[in-house]
Amino acid sequence: MVDCLATISERYFPTGRTLVLSWNNCAGRTGTWTNEIGLLDRIHLAARWPVFMSCASDMDRNYTFGWGDKHGSYVLTVRFQFNDEEGVLWDVRKQMQILQTLSSWNPRARFVIMMTGQGIEGYRQRMIKALLKDLSAIQVLNVIILINLSEHSSSRHTNNPSDIHVFTWFPFTRPSGYCGTLSRAIVIDAWMSDSHRFLLNKDLFESKVPENLGLCPLRISTSHFPPFVIFPDENNTTLSSMRGVEMDMLRHISEAMNASVVLPHRIDNGTDSKAQNGVWTGPIGDLLYNRSDVALGAWCFTLEDSLVVDGTNSYFTEEFTFFIPRAEMYPLFLSMSRVFAPNVWLLIFVVILLTAVLLNRVALVRSVGESDSYKYITNCLLRVWSVIVGVSVHEMPRSNPLRGVFLLWVVFCLAINTVFQTYVTSYLVDPGFRYQIDSPEEVIESGLDVYVIDFLHAFLSDNLLNQLKSWRKCGSGNQCLMIVSKSPGVVMLSGKVFVEYKADKQNGVIMYHESSHDLFHFHIVMVIKKGSPFLDRMNIIIRRLVEGGFPGKFFKDIIEKENMRSLSELDQYFSMSVYHLQSAFVAMFVGMSLSVLLFFAELMTRLIQRSNQTNSEIV
Fold first, then answer.
1. Is 78:147 a contact under the CB 8 Å cutoff?
2. Beta partners for 229?
3. 277-294 burial, b if ≥16 CB within 10 A, otherwise e?
4. What is the Cα–Cα distance from 298 to 553, expressed in whole angstroms?
5. What is the pLDDT, as a whole number, of residue 269?
6. Is 570 helix (H, G, I), strand (E, B) or coil?
7. 328 within 8 A of 528, measured Cβ to Cβ
8. What local confidence, expressed as pLDDT, does residue 569 receive?
9. So where are the chain's domains?
10. Residue 410 has what pLDDT?
């Protein structure tokens, strides 16, 4: 038996990872057990593994172990005495209970149960089957059982009574098992004591989960949580009718594993909780109480979750940030004035005056052959203004110096008008927003009310919560979004993917600015039971999907399907209305009002002049 165990450990136990030796009789600590089988000497002399010794009788003692690497292998020693079949089962259960309390417990490690004693063959098949069934209940599948049969027993592998038979089972391979249900244990190999080798030299720890599950059911626990899990409106729920990022991932995983997916009834925003009596509800409860194999629903895996369940490789990252009310839009009637900054407007008017003065001075110097209209400053001012507004002048300059100055002014006005017309059209359509609050510091300084989704509260530091002047919980993501949409002027802390999906689905009705500073992010995983045999195979498939960029594509496809734009919305042209042309009409009415006032002022001036002239003639 020692030679067999030494060969198995050297061939199959991972080097450098802890090897746990467990037994029920604590007398072994004083040397009785060690001297009887001589195993510890061989293991220590190999110097290939850290060794930890566990005794089931020490269950009441307080073990203090850190969170080190998971154990790599286990060796359990069981004695069969006085035809006590129940005693063997009790012995293994007791040892497994103490091993499960260790922080580095690893149900996916390689287990070897060494059974010694006399008269085992009479209880062999029934006892081994009961042992394997108990171990499968705690997800220990990668296990072999070593039994040294007596001289009266016979086997198709060997008739030598000193040979050791290796028993195991395969949960998804008939006739040993089917879809995770144990049918019977099988002898996978036998250790030949005379030649110190295995008879068939098979892989004793062959993978218990084949790549092809043969349409075995994969039970899913999830809830309606768009855009990750989207249940159909009809009552009949099938994998093909469901949508969402995680459902698309699950569809590819089930096809690669050739598994049939069993879906639950629709539940909106399912939650997990632990009652005072220790009973779990929700997806975690389904996993712990063997009602499901995989749990979905945008699961942000945490340390607390890792204590009770396992998570797959991450395939999506959800970033959480502040969604801040958009700043007020600039008034449309200011669109034309906002094309240039105030100092640029001032500089343009100064240049107009200087150009008019320059034209007038050049016309006075070159008076020979030049029109008299340019010799008056008012006429020059009118002609300069005509050019800048794109209106032809009444009379062109005649002298070459004046024409040169006039040409330079035309080129300047062409550049200014091109820039003005380009930007004024944009501002007429979209006047833009005033200064936008963006960073968390600005949110804190603004004193705005902050609504936080319930499950995010645990991830916010006390320092941040103390700095926020007014914050409150608002329930689930949908509840929080509904409250915020009815209460403008408040800030919401939520995930980007969730809000983007909701905003696009409602055609952009959620008018909130997404902060450019992320507070934190979570890696989303699928959750399975501790020690589940599906983990390794699922991780391989998920890693391939992530490397191919499929999760991001799935999300984009969902957004596109939810936001089929009409042809009018995709049109390149934009119909201007009076609403957009407020600034143009304001400028027109202001100009007309000034013109009317100047007209009446001119009439009044003429009337006053005529009255004064009449009075002077009378006198």
1. no
2. 225
3. eeebebbbbbbeeeebbb
4. 16
5. 66
6. coil
7. no
8. 47
9. 2-198, 332-428
10. 92
Question: Would the pLDDT of 248 be above 90?
Answer: yes
Q: Please state which of the ranges 63-67, 94-98, 242-246, 283-287 shows the lowest mean pLDDT.
A: 63-67
Among 291, 321, 304, 302, CA closest to 525: 302
> Region 255-262: what's the mean pLDDT?
93
The answer, yes or no, to whether residue 605 has pLDDT greater than 60, is: yes
The span from the CA of 252 to the CA of 249, in Å, is 5
Q: What share of the chain is helix, strand, coil (3-state, %, to 5)?
A: 45, 20, 40
- Position with higher pLDDT, 469 vs 276: 469
* pLDDT score of 26: 60
- The residue behind tokens 């080798």 is 197
Q: How far apart are CA 514 and CA 493, in angstroms?
A: 10
Predicted pLDDT at 30? 43
pLDDT for 123: 63
Which of helix, strand or coil describes residue 73?
strand
d(CA 615, CA 5): 137
Helix (H, G, I), strand (E, B) or coil at 24: coil
Strands (E), 389-519: 450-452, 471-473, 491-495, 512-514
Instruction: Tell me how far apart the alpha carbons of residues 536 and 334 are, in angstroms, rounded to a whole number.
Output: 63
Of the CATH numbers 3.30.2130, 2.50.20, 3.40.50, 3.30.70, which one belongs to the domain with range 2-198?
Answer: 3.40.50
Specify the pTM: 0.71
Nearest CA to 13 out of 194, 191, 144, 122 is that of 144
- Going by C-alpha positions, the residue among 416, 426, 434 that lies closest to residue 336 is 426
pLDDT score for 132: 92
How close are the terminal C-alpha atoms of the chain, in Å? Answer: 148
What DSSP string describes 118-161? Answer: SSGGGTHHHHHHHHHHHHHHTT--SEEEEEE--TT---SS---T
Give the bridge partners for 78, in sequence order: 115
Phi-psi region of 470 (alpha: psi -120 to 50; beta: other; left: phi over 0): beta
| Nearest C-alpha neighbor of 269 from the set 231, 240, 235, 242 | 231
